[in-house]
Design a protein that fits this description.
The longest helix has 26 residues, at 114-139. The chain has five helices and twelve strands. With 255 residues, the protein is of the alpha/beta class. α3 crosses α5. The protein has an eight-stranded mixed sheet, sandwiched between helices. The protein has a two-stranded antiparallel ribbon with strand order 5-6. A two-stranded antiparallel ribbon has the order 8-9. The two termini are 22 Å apart. The chain has helices spanning 55-67, 114-139, 175-186, 204-209, 230-251; strands at residues 2-5, 9-13, 21-25, 74-79, 101-102, 105-106, 143-150, 153-154, 157-161, 166-169, 191-193, 217-223.
Length: 255
Amino acid sequence: MTSDRAEAWTTIAGSGAAGGILIVADHASNHVPHDIDLGIDPAVLDRHVAIDIGVAPLAAMLCARLGCAAVLGCAAVLGGVSRLVCDFNRDEGAAGLVPAASDGIVIPGNALDDRGRAARVDRFFRPYHAAVADAIARLTPALLVSLHSFTPRLETAPDVRRPWQIGILYNRDERAARHAIPLLEAAGIVTGDNEPYSGRVLNATMDRHSEAAGLPYLGIEVRQDLIGDPAGVERWAELLEPVIAATWDVFGHTG
C-alpha cells in the first residue's frame, strides 16, 4: 500500500482493479493546523468530541487485509483535521460544520464571521469532499464503507449505556446494511440496526457520495472502547473483514 497526504485528507492507495472497496473515514484525525487556535484545553483533542478514536488504524488494517484478496482492491480516504476544525460529515450549509460548541464544550476559536466560516469551507471541507469524489471516479468502487466510532456512553447522559459493539447506519439505501447485519449477528456481534443513532438523521457524506449516485455503501460504527489499542484494532479488523468482503461480493465484479 502507498499513501498520499494533503492538509484536509490522507489517502491509502490499495491494490486491486476497479470494482473494489473504498473506505471513507470523515473523523479519522484530531489534527489542528498550527495557525488555528480553537481556544480549548489540548486534552480535549484526545476525546471523541475531536476524533473517532481507533478509526484511522482500523481503516489502514482493513485496507491491508481486504487488499490481499486477489479480486478485491481496497483504498481509503481519511479526514485530515479534527471535526472541531471542520466536520466533514455535515452538509455544507449546516451550522455544525464549524461547531461553536460540541458535547457541552464551547469552542471560542470557532466564533467566526461569514468570511471566516467560508475560509474553513474552502480550505478543508471542499478539498476533502473533492478527494472522496476523485477517488470514486478513479477507482470506480463497487462498495463504499463509511467508518466511524461511537462512545459507550454519552457525555450528556452518562447513565445511559450503549451496548452495541457495532452499529450499521443507513438512510434510504439499505441494500448493503440488510446483507451485513445478519452476518454480524451470526458472528455473535451485538449489532445496532441504525443504532446508536440513525443514518436517516445524519448521513451527510454517504448521502452526498453514495445515495445521490446510487452507489451501495456500508455505514459502520465501532464502539470506541473496542478499538482503543492495537490489539482491539487487530481483533475488529479480523471480525469485520469477512463481513465487508461478503457484502462487497453482492455488488462487486471481477471485470
